[in-house]
Amino acid sequence: MNASKPIVGVLLAGGQSRRMGGGDKALRPLGGKPLLAHVVARLKPQVAGMIINANGEASRFAAFDLPVVADNIAGFAGPLAGVHAGLSWVKANRPGIDHVVTVAADTPFFPTDLVQQFLAMQKDQSTLLVARSEEGLHPVIGLWPVAFVTVLEDSLKRGERKASDWVKSQGAVEVFFPKVEIGGRLIDPFFNINQPEELTEADALLKRRESRVRPSPGGDG
Question: Over the stretch 95-106, which tens digit does the pLDDT of each residue have?
Answer without folding.
Answer: 999 999 999 999
